[in-house]
Amino acid sequence: MFPSSNSRLHIGFIIDAFDVGGSELNAIKTAEALTRQSFQLTVFHMHRDGPLRERYEHIGAHLVHIPLKGFATPSFPAVVRLIRRESIHRRLQLLHSHCVYGNIVGAAVRWSGVHRLPVMASRRWTGFAVRPALRPLNALAQSAADAVLVNSPSLLRRVKSESPFSNPQYVPNVLPDSAFRQLTSAQQQVARATFGLADVSPIVGCVARLEPVKDHRLLIAAWALVISRVPSAVLAIVGNGSLRATLEQQAVTLGLAANIQFLGEIRPSDLPHSLFDICVLSSSDEGFPNSLLEGMAQRKAIVATSVGGVSDLVQHNVNGLLVAHGDPNALANALIELLTQPAMADRLASNGALTVAAHRESVVVETLVRNYRAIARD
Description:
By secondary structure, the protein is an alpha/beta fold. The protein has helices spanning 22-36, 53-58, 75-89, 100-110, 135-144, 153-162, 185-194, 216-229, 244-253, 290-297, 310-313, 328-340, 342-356, 361-375, and strands spanning 10-15, 40-45, 62-65, 94-97, 119-123, 147-150, 168-170, 203-207, 234-238, 260-264, 278-281, 301-305, 321-323.
């Protein structure tokens, strides 16, 4: 029996870590949206701590540590038993996994024991840069799950090709209503001053982890070309990661220290994209770019490399500009075009605001819960 449309589901999430990354941020945003509608949430997590843990605690999620040390170790069956025991105790009606490891664990939980626990897997990434060997296991997990959440049309096709017996369901990434809040000019000036950007204009911003896949090296190389045409422009880089010192040194080596500011982490509630005039993303791969979504919600023009799921969001010269990855000249020319043609930037920003409306929390949660109810048990 499926639960009635009026009931509040008891849902279990399986996540890897509390770190700040695309999949991790999607998971916590989804959790926050669900608890705002009074759904009960239990979160099974493989790592104990991280910057996002506090947000799960704040929404009252019940946290259960699952100490997985590997799929070929005794910890794997022990973790499966722990999740089943907690699921029965807390009367969970389904599990939703949010990472490769979670998908594999979730599939094992689904087929263990006498009573099947429905599982929704997730696929929000294109490649397997960290553990390519997990690709076949994840493909099996996708087929074993009752449904697979994908957040872009291209991933819908990819999951079908990898796992012919799977049931992929497209659910867009969720943005809370707060992401759409528009600052007045005065408020923007105050915000810029707070982050050391007072009296700076124009500002191009990039919000992304300082890790190789985001390819800030390409962006910084392109920026040297941008300031040759727009000398007053400043590149604001938001985020932290393993490459920060390397990227800061690259900026100094190229003589760009005065035109690039590394701002570190800025909380989403502080609307980092509101600081910018133009948003840019220079990634070598993307599942679906939350950063660009948030930029569109702030009515900013977008420039991005055409990789992974970016083209599922950005239509070239309609709601943003797309360039080939690896070409600093093309990236620089696109940024210069928007910096020197404000009417064009305004047109792209207005169209982007229309695009991002489909990602509002109320719209996405309705779609997600409908998919939950299709597989959940009473």
